[in-house]
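As a point of orientation, let us examine one representative protein, giving the amino acid sequence and backbone structure tokens.
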Amino acid sequence: MADWQWQLGILGGSTTAWVIGLALFALWLVELRSIRGESDRRRRFALASLGGVAILAVYLLALQITLFRETFEDVAGSTGILIDNSRSMTLSGASGPRSDAVRALINEWQDDDRVNPVVYLFGSSTRGAIWSGLGESYEPSDDETNIREALDYVLAKGADQDLGSLVVITDGSDASFRADTLALGSGAPVIHTIVVGGDDPIDDQAIVSLHADTTAYVGVPAVIRADVRAVGDLRRHELRVQLWHESRLEQETIAELDEAGRGTVAFEMTPQRIGRALYRVLIPAASNDEVPQNNNRAALLRVGRERLRALLVAGRPSWDVRFLRDFLKRDGSIDLVSFFILRAAADLTAAPTNELALIPFPTDELFREHLGSFDVVIFQNFDYAPYEMQTYLPRIRDYVHRGGSFLMIGGDRSFAEGRYAGTAIEEILPVKVGAPGVLKGSYRAEVNKQLARHPIVALGPDPALTRQTWRMLPALHGANMVGAVKEEAQVLLRHPRARLRNGAPLPILVVSDSGRGRVAAMTTDASWRWRFAADNATVGSDEYELFWDRMIRWLTRDPLLEPARISTDRERYGVGGDLVVSGRLRDDSYRPMKNARVQLHFQPAVDLEPVAALSTDQDGELQTTVSAPVEPGAYEIIASVDGKEVAREVFVVEESGDELADLEAMPEELRAVADRTGGRVFLGTGDVPALSKLASTSRRAAGLVSKQPLSNPWFIFFTVLLLGATWVLRRRWGRR
């Protein structure tokens, strides 16, 4: 029951009360002044006291004080049960699996039909369950324990169900839970907690968490940090931690643990190859380690180069070469190797080669020894023939097919003018080289309306503004004629007037895939003009930078520029855990795949059947939850539309996952919850009473009770009596 509270009923509240109080106090002082001449001390005291009490009674009567309180009534409340459904409940101690103890308790409670509880299971989420048959169907499998969210959910539901008591059954292995963060109002139910395994502590050494950058670089040291802990008898043992790469032991160290049995170790390694690198942090299992599953955790690193390596080969100096080279040199993410060809191997000289400042073009060193180290190769107005490169062109083709990227920029030594027709380079170009020919005159390149969303040419936030921006850019001069555009290629920019022999517009910029790599053909050598603003226009300069930045990033497959992307909510999962997949799918023209039917598969394949089939929304977005594979390892989830792969993402499956990594129970926090609500705490299920004995009542607000004790007739009579007695005495003793 709540305490009494009071309020003033007088008009004006406390302000009026102060005014009246001061006025009556002044009246009492006048009364004291008037009786100073009384010679009898007892009469003076009687008149002063009686007058003061009478004035105080008048004051209290004028205030109209009202006392009120909120009342509650106890009603028989329903009983709720909140059961931990996480995988840690399957662990075994000296008395057997925790889940078996829970099943036995449920079956025992179900024999007493006096209580029909409301039941919830919690783990990765909280959901209702059916009480009947729960003992047989209880199979903990969630990959997460979240006590706080579960209690918040049930307490919110309980407010509508007159929940009188709530029994929480859990092993308490949620290191993030804190009782003081739980909002428990005056109407909260009594919460009893049963800590399964609380009377049977485990002996365990574990890797609690790993911390590593998902991206590493070749030749640059990377660090993997592991938080470890030991509980039970194993806290007194030496904790050895190892780092493995593939099947090779790389490093080993001894962890230093604090008083709580926790510590951190760090491993530094230097990746040597580009690609995915799977590292494992391992604690050799002791003979009495009761949970060896959490002794082995994996970190998946995507290893790339710290900076993109670009090879720029130019046939001769020009404004176009100068501006592009300056742009690539200023970009801190690009390691540029560039060559201006000023002297061919066949050039006649009167001096020995070692005395010349201009060395011959190092074709063999570049295209035989170091070609694979570059992310993108750019031929800018470059003709290969004078440099005896015929035998190296197939190497460039193979480099692209293996995943490299290649860009050819036009000029009087490029495309047909560079004699690339019929070579291995033509095989990978997105255009057929055709017969020699160079178009003269100025023009403004037009963006392909169907491909205005492509990141290379998307200079505006939407296709309409992109096309407007391209119309305002400075005019280009000249372009190489080509034979035709290959079928699988995309024409991003085209000439507004010139046509090919087949009647199609002359392409200015064409891109395509070639094997596992990407290629682009730009048939003009005048893009440097975009570096300057056009007449009466505000565009230029920034657009030049944006265009070439996007070009390099698209060629080298920057993930942010891919048309379709999917992602997982975490990097690692326990076996069979819930894996949330979300993504945004666009077609090759970067238009949203609306209502597309998407199939998701794991690789390596767990099953020939898709793990999920769903449709995208109007924006091409999707989200679904699937079960992770049941075998540990590194996996990719692949999204396919009409049998064609459109996106993929990598993740790791561990035998323990986060759920089995930190199993130390937190009974103190659960005890604090019970203490705040008047509940009980049980360590283990052995001494838990019948469910009916844990049932309780709930308090329900019954309304407000108010009264005015100083406004009743007796107090009024008392006040009048005091005033009358004061007047009579004053008259009798000769006072006016």
User: Anything to note?
Assistant: The chain has five domains: 5-72+706-732, 89-201+665-695, 205-304, 308-436+478-530+545-559, 562-654.
